[in-house]
Amino acid sequence: MITNGEGGAVRHGNFTNYYEFNSAEERLKLLPNNVWTNCTEKHENSPYLVLDVGCNSGVLTQLLWQYLSNCTGRNVYILGIDMDSTLIERAVTQNKHPQYVRYSTLDVMEESAEHNINEYLQSHKRKKFDAICCFAVTMWIHINHHDIGLKNFLQNLSKLTELFVVEPQPWKCYQTAERRLKKIKNQTFPLFLELKWRTHIEQEIENFIVANLGRQKVYESSLTKWRRKICFYR
Questions:
Q1: Least C-beta-crowded within 10 Å: which of 40, 60, 174, 226?
Q2: pTM higher than 0.90 for the full model?
Q3: Tell me: the pLDDT tens digits for 209-234?
Q4: Which residues pair with 164 in a beta bridge?
Q5: CA–CA separation, 59 vs 56, rounded Å?
Q6: Burial letters for 32-54: b for 16+ Cβ neighbours within 10 Å, e otherwise?
């Protein structure tokens, strides 16, 4: 497990002190309140289901529950998943809304994750989530699973949701992650030099979501502190 003293040299983005340098409150301020629901949706009177992928210790997940409860006017249920069991344990311990928010240790790139996610949907008698949120996780999928892994990630999650929320990291973040890992641990990401999607990552992701997954971008936030945009696709 990465500790605060290791300077952010992580392989999968599982920072133990993530919210000390990336404020959940500030990110929440960038979210719109008028794109989460669609008047044509069949489930407008049913609970609002959300999957938060790469939820870390759940700080943003907790705030997101309150935010969506207010702006949708529905009972909101969120499943937060992360591959790091220590972070999930912390999220469970600090969970202020256990009736509505659940956490599970899942690696979304493993086949077993699909079964667990579908079980959660079935428990709510649903086949899809109203929203799936991927805040700052695409780089870690990409850099560890190559271009095809990222495409599969986007495609598989897109099938499970009405609204797809993606905050991609730009290429500069990839370079920083590679540099830190090499400097602090004398390691590299084995696939780093093989990636075909490189300098224009955000545009590559958007083009794929729109052209290949048949979605339309309905909102784009202003830049976050880390110069990223949060994009909403329906």
A1: 40
A2: yes
A3: 999 999 999 999 999 887 899 999 99
A4: 132, 233
A5: 8
A6: eeeebbeeeeebeeebbbbbbbb
